[in-house]
Design goal:
The chain is mostly helical and 502 residues long. The chain is built from 20 helices and three strands.
Length: 502
């Protein structure tokens, strides 16, 4: 069977499976940002949240949607499906790259390569990337970073230039996944060059240089865009104070980096489970290393783990306000897949007829199944949140209408406060998961008014009040809030007040 035909069949199978797993996204869902888009419109969101944050392609998509006035459900579903399609293509590209290192191509080895590629791309952190309307451009960013790595590994004519162009395009799609370029680049360099440290360092130097150029180019675009649009960028708010943030994150490394990303996994995977898998795989690799005397296997696994931790540390520094979100820590989610890539490409652990071979294959299958079940659970809970948001706002509408009838007035204004360290109240008690996917839209500053307007049919303007400069008003609200709707929403002087927690 020709390679192209095999790829098409594989794509169809992957897309069907992925469509089932991500059905609660594909069948229409509302992210907190979606409520914001519906409230402020495509154009304003495209300028303030895409162009100003360095996502030029998402800006163009948003402006096109604004021009043709596309319905929000068509917009969300279309971009989600495109994101899944591109991600499935990324799985196939990665699988073909892995198979080039296969010493003996068999059906089993090909299935193993597919499983490795699937859990690497559709990892537990990536679920958050696909949650947003930016799913399509985030998928493209992952694909282009992989293609850039392929250029570096193949080392054909002008490979560095081609890799650089692909990486820059990927960064302009979405800079939050840039860590994947370094992680994938290093693991494939190790797979190709083995103990040739000189070549590995050479590849690493090219990767670092391209990463810096891509990041700087994106920052220049952000500066130009914000200057022309008269806006401010919100995502990469760590770059103005790199040294200060470096010290801050370093002093809290245990909680901000290790615990948040490697233990609790931003709430997107069961606590400690990722580390348990890493330890089990490392233990099996260690036993295999002793048995076969293939030196350096455990060392390289530890090196990949440390590299992932350093990438995570760097992402926390440059994006400190959103340091605990899975979408910028996809390298953590892909770590186990990357370790499997190394073991498949550089060792014979998946080929030699030993008990370790079947144990490692069982572990790979188990990890894929757990990740899929975990994804389905997260998406189901997210859809439950959408339903709870609807019911919450319907109850709020009844509260407002009752006040309007009793006082013969019309409530046309809403204001909200926000206090620090109240994020834990931004979730529904009925929902077990606590992650970005299960934020209550009414509890988030960027989506509160949009969520209320969408479900109540009202047209409140976004009106955020700082609590301490408005002490008297805040204290008056605080004194009455427990008597209001849900112990949070209070109408005073014919104005709706409430507290946003996130």
């Amino acid at each position: 069977m020709k390679q192209r035909t095999k790829n098409l069949i594989l794509f169809f199978i992957l897309f069907v499976i992925t469509g089932v797993v991500f059905w609660n996204y594909v069948s229409m869902h509302y992210a907190t940002d979606t409520y914001n888009i519906m409230n402020i419109g495509y154009e304003k969101y495209a300028i303030n949240n895409s162009l100003s944050d360095g996502r030029i392609f998402m800006f163009l998509i948003g402006m096109f949607a604004n021009t043709i006035n596309i319905p929000i459900n068509v917009y969300v579903i279309t971009l989600t499906v495109i994101g899944l399609i591109i991600s499935c293509i990324a799985v196939i590209v990665l699988k073909n790259m892995i198979m080039k290192f296969c010493k003996k191509e068999t059906k089993l080895q090909e299935v193993i390569a597919i499983l490795i590629s699937y859990c690497t791309i559709f990892n537990f952190m990536y679920v958050e990337n696909l949650y947003f309307v930016e799913a399509a451009v985030m998928g493209f960013s992952v694909l282009f970073y992989i293609l850039a790595v392929k250029q570096i590994v193949d080392k054909k004519k002008l490979y560095a230039l081609k890799a650089g162009i692909l990486a820059i395009i990927a960064t302009f799609c979405y800079q939050g996944t840039i860590g994947l370029f370094a992680l994938y680049g290093v693991v494939f360099s190790i797979a190709k060059n083995g103990k040739n440290i000189k070549e590995i360092l050479k590849d690493f130097g090219v990767i670092i240089l391209i990463t810096i150029i891509s990041f700087v180019a994106n920052l220049i675009q952000i500066d130009i865009a914000t200057y022309l649009a008269g806006t401010t960028q919100k995502r990469l708010n760590g770059i103005q104070n790199l040294l200060e943030n470096f010290i801050y994150v370093l002093s809290r490394f245990g909680t901000m980096v290790f615990n948040t990303m490697f233990i609790s996994n931003c709430g997107l995977f069961p606590n400690y489970l990722m580390m348990i898998f890493v330890l089990i795989i490392t233990l099996m690799a260690g036993i295999y290393e002793v048995q076969t005397k293939e030196n350096g296997i455990v060392f390289n696994i530890i090196f990949l783990f440390v590299l992932t931790m350093l990438i995570t540390f760097a992402m926390c520094i440059v994006s400190i306000a959103s340091y605990d979100t899975g979408r910028i820590h996809v390298p953590v989610g892909s770590l186990i897949g990357v370790i499997f890539i190394y073991l498949f490409c550089k060792t014979s652990i998946f080929e030699k007829e030993t008990i370790i071979k079947y144990l490692i294959i069982t572990t790979l299958i188990a990890y894929n199944l757990i990740t899929i079940v975990n994804t389905i659970s997260l998406l189901y809970q997210h859809k439950q949140v959408n339903e709870l948001e609807r019911k919450q706002c319907e109850g709020l509408e009844e509260y407002i209408e009752t006040y309007e009838r009793e006082n013969n007035v019309k409530i046309t204004e809403a204001r909200y406060f926000k206090l620090s360290n109240m994020k834990k109240y931004g979730y529904f008690e009925e929902i077990k998961n606590k992650s970005v996917l299960t934020y209550d839209g009414v509890a988030c500053t960027w989506s509160a008014i949009g969520t209320i307007n969408f479900y109540t049919g009202r047209d409140f303007a976004d009106n955020y009040l700082e609590a301490y400069p408005n002490k008297e008003l805040f204290y008056a609200y605080a004194a009455k809030r427990n008597l209001g709707y849900e112990g949070n929403f209070v109408i005073m002087d014919d104005i709706l007040y409430f507290l946003a927690y996130i």
